[in-house]
Design goal:
Layout (H helix, E strand, L loop, with lengths): L7 E6 L10 E6 H7 L3 E4 L5 E4 L1 H5 L11 H4 E5 L6 H5 L5 E6 L8 E8 L6 E6 L4 H8 L11 H37 L10 H13 L4 E9 L1 H8 L1 H17 L6 E4 L4 E7 L4 H15 L3 E3 L2 E3 L2 E8 L8 H17 L5 E3 L11 E3 L2
Parallel strand pairs: 14-15
Antiparallel strand pairs: 1-2, 3-4, 3-8, 5-6, 6-7, 7-8, 9-11, 9-14, 10-11, 12-13, 15-16
Length: 361
């Protein structure tokens, strides 16, 4: 069956006003129609497509639209129930709403305007993507050449592209700023020499634990004979000792425990959820034994030990952070007075009714 062809469209217009109201026929070549309306089609009275513009043809890359039936390629959403070209021409203002039967949902909505070319000539439809324009450009690989020069859709695409680029840059900047913020916060909470938490981080953790009423054990350690190491072997040796002590504490604690360097040679360990004092004292003894192992540094053997004070969040009335830290500090100095190299459990009562218990490993 041979397909009907149309090589030009004729539009008749009637001049307004004047004494000679003669009809004027305007014939547009195919090239002119393509430039003005890259998504137009001409359909015959029976609904068969007589001509399809270049951009519209891109929506159906594997088939020639000429000769196809309009109502098989498109679903008519407005006017409702339209089954013929005549029905389409009855739409108010000639405005149509269509969907592509074969397209994905995000690219299928189309708008159109239809005008009559005469009772025997059929109709001219000019289509657009409407709100699905951006998705359609991406899905059908459209370029600016696929739109009329005067089509504001091209300007909108540039705006969308510019906005998208700006949003992407903004996201990248936000990610960089967020990363810098995290790094700064991490640095602010970290002891640079040992890599442990610092006093600021410890205060932050303890405040949260006390606020949320989370039970914990507290161990406060001071390195014995650290001043002699510094005085005899220099500050580099002292720094190395601090790093060795830090590694020892990390090995003797769990992943979720908090180990902090809170002073020159002072360390604090927070044991989350651990309030068994006998177990805390056992851990303290094990730490002291490890610290007393000689440290070989070149031809020198460095010797240190540790004095420890132990308390828990449940040993009343140490309910404030200051009171808890003071109790652990008092117990630490009790260990110093007891001869160093031992751990002392802070009393449970503020009046000293229960004596401190020192344990020497």
């Amino acid at each position: 069956m041979s397909r009907p062809e149309v090589t030009s469209a004729t539009v008749s217009s009637r001049p307004q006003g004047g004494s000679t109201a003669a009809e004027t026929g305007l014939s547009l070549a195919d090239s002119a129609l393509d430039r003005l309306m890259p998504m137009h089609m001409v359909v015959g009275p029976d609904g068969h497509i007589l001509r399809a513009a270049r951009t519209l043809q891109k929506l159906f890359p594997r088939r020639d639209l000429v000769g196809e039936n309009l109502f098989r390629l498109f679903e008519i959403r407005r006017p409702r129930g339209a089954r013929s070209v005549f029905d389409l021409l009855q739409a108010e203002g000639g405005r149509l709403s269509l969907t592509l039967s074969q397209a994905n949902a995000s690219q299928r909505n189309l708008k159109a305007v239809i005008v009559s070319l005469g009772e025997r000539e059929g109709a001219l439809l000019n289509l657009s993507f409407g709100f699905s324009l951006v998705d359609a450009v991406r899905f059908y690989d459209l370029t600016a050449a696929d739109f009329a020069v005067t089509d504001l859709a091209v300007e909108m695409l540039y705006l969308v592209e510019a906005k998208s680029a700006a949003l992407n840059e903004s996201k990248k900047l936000n990610l960089r700023l967020q990363g810098a913020k995290i790094a700064a916060e991490e640095q602010a909470f970290t002891d640079t020499l040992t890599g442990l938490k610092n006093r600021r981080a410890l205060d932050h953790v303890l405040a949260r634990l006390v606020r949320d009423r989370i039970a914990f054990g507290l161990l406060h350690l001071d390195i014995d004979y650290f001043k002699q190491v510094n005085d005899t072997h220099g500050h580099a040796a002292g720094d190395e000792v601090l790093q060795i002590v830090a590694r020892c504490l990390v090995r003797e604690t769990r992943r979720n425990d908090i180990v902090a360097r809170v002073g020159g040679d002072e360390f604090t360990v927070v044991f989350l959820g651990l309030v068994d004092t006998s177990l805390l004292m056992e851990i303290s003894s094990r730490i002291i034994r490890r610290l007393e192992e000689p440290i070989q540094r070149g031809g020198d053997r460095l010797r240190i030990s540790g004095s420890i004070g132990v308390t828990t969040s449940e040993r009343a009335p140490y309910r404030s952070i200051e009171a808890l830290l003071a109790a652990a500090d008092d117990a630490l100095y009790a260990s110093k007075r007891a001869g160093r190299g031992c751990a002392t459990l802070a009393p449970a009562q503020p009046d000293g009714g229960a004596k401190t218990d020192s344990v020497t490993p």
